Amino acid sequence: MAAEKRAFQAEVSKLLQIVANSLYSEREVFLRELISNASDACDKLRYLALTAPELAAEDSTFQITLTVDPDAKTLTIADNGVGMDAAEIEANLGTIARSGTEAFVAGLNDDASKEHGLIGRFGVGFYSAFMVADQVEVLTRKAGETAAWRWSSDGLGEYEIDDAEKASRGTAITLHLKADAAEFLESHRLRHVVKTYSDHISIPIVLTGQPAADDDDGAAEGEQTTDETLNQASALWTRPKAEIDAGQYTEFYHHIAHAFDDPWLTAHWRAEGVIEYAALLFVPSQPPFDLFHPERKHRIKLYVKRVFITDDCEELVPSWLRFVKGVVDCEDLPLNVSREMLQNNPVLGKIKAGLVKRVLSELSKKADKSADEYAVFWNNFGAVLKEGLYSDGAEHRDALLPLTRFKSTAGDALTSLADYVGRMKPGQDAIYYITGESYEAVAASPHLEGFKAKDVEVLLLSDPIDDFWISAMFEGFEGKQFKSATRGGTDLSKIDADEAAEADADKADKPEEKTSEALAPFIANLKTTLGDKVKDVRESERLTDSACVLVADEGDMDIHLERMLRQHQQVKEAAPRVLEINPKHALIKSLAAGASSGKNPQELEDAALLLLDQARIVEGEAVLDPLGFARRLSAVMQKAATL
Ligand code: ADP
Ligand code: MG
Known about the structure:
By secondary structure, the chain is α+β, with helices and mostly antiparallel strands. The protein contains 21 helices and 22 strands.
């Protein structure tokens, strides 16, 4: 085939421009990226060779070599991994194949990002080669095939693919170093960069052609060379914890998770019991972009006796721990385990139980140690962890509930349930919460008025999962039931208010004692007018400022939950709600007076319907009859305007 010029995908061109101008100090990460790819390629082939040993037969010792040609000013990074065929080169090196790089490019519009070491922190994969090279050549041959390919580019918008000769499988990437990148021809520089970023790679990284140490008579001149392995070349998770420093863990996390933040939590242990395994797990400090994506990746890699098996094993952690990344290396599975065999495997089941227990106990330790640090985790992953209360609550409720944190009416800081219970008022027997679409919406809800007046704390919940897990917590927390503040049957009068608040409440309450009687004709009137549009009409205990509110009757489904289920077609019809009216509100008082006098029945009927619609709007529901609503509202405004 004749060499063919092709254009890079537009995003790649954009990325390459940034890469070419990247800051001097971050350029060395190119080596980390290329070595990481080489190591992945070896892992892939090692796995394929478990079932097709002929693929790796010619040479079964995996290694990565670095070769310098000082005259040609080239550095070559070569591996004997899986290699690529023509279609794979095209897809992998001409477009942005990897999600992390895509996210990086998306963030590039912000000019400031270029100055803040983004490349160093995020890595841009293969394309980082163009930070140090003005010409890159990739010679590759896929394991099991004889055809080889040469990909080359100057990184300026086009690349070329041509057929080629290559004696053995794998990939060799030759960088024609830029004039100002000659430092990467120096062995001490390469040694340092590999040690810093790639020491954890489990395959030997060998620097070829190093001058041999003088042996006997010192007469050996020039020609004597040897190879030098630059990394420890043992899987990091097999080494004792005491010998690994934080920097090495971080570099390993970057490699294994294809992530570039710092781990928020690192847990490294070896389980020796019925089942033997080593685990090195991380909780990221930043949420991955696909956390709630249905096709999100599982990020724990399964190894068996140091051999990479899969990074797509759903059986290792439940989906509510899907933010955990890392490695599990098991001694008790056969090496030729197929991915099918992993499903419902009892060994994996036991490992999973061990991982869950350990991660939850590590989270609990972090929560005890620093509330601020824990809040970072909670804001990133709390919504995911709460899924566990819903799906695996029976098993993990006791471990998960103490890990939850909430915004509440008590202040800006997140609160734990234990702290909430500690602040409960005498006579308060439930943990009150309100759910809704957003923090702002729930914080401003009229349902909270009575609670605020009595200084009774309410948890403010706004994650979609909240309605689900909380309605599954039948046993409550420490003997206290969860109770929605939007539901009827909330007997606030039983709760002792603070002295100050009580004095206020007394002042407000006493002159109103007879309101019930005064309200009766109006309530009767509302019931007749609204009919089966409402379940009931009641005098409210929870309102102080608003005129009316809709509540779920005790035992009925929470309004917000019902709306979510309706959106997902899981509930067809909205159940009628209870309309509560505020006896202390001026509007209600004058409407009640009107109802008692029996005058203006038409106006009263309009007002009844408007009150209901108003309560529905506040609840985030549509008005019942938009045309009728508009007509009634206009009539009211007309009247006000003619006054
Ligand atoms: P990532 O490693 O995150 O996937 P890169 O930009 O580093 O992104 O690499 C893109 C793709 O190119 C890799 O996913 C892999 O499929 C392919 N690739 C890169 N280097 C090699 C290599 N040495 N051997 C085989 N495939 C490679
Ligand atoms: Mg890569």
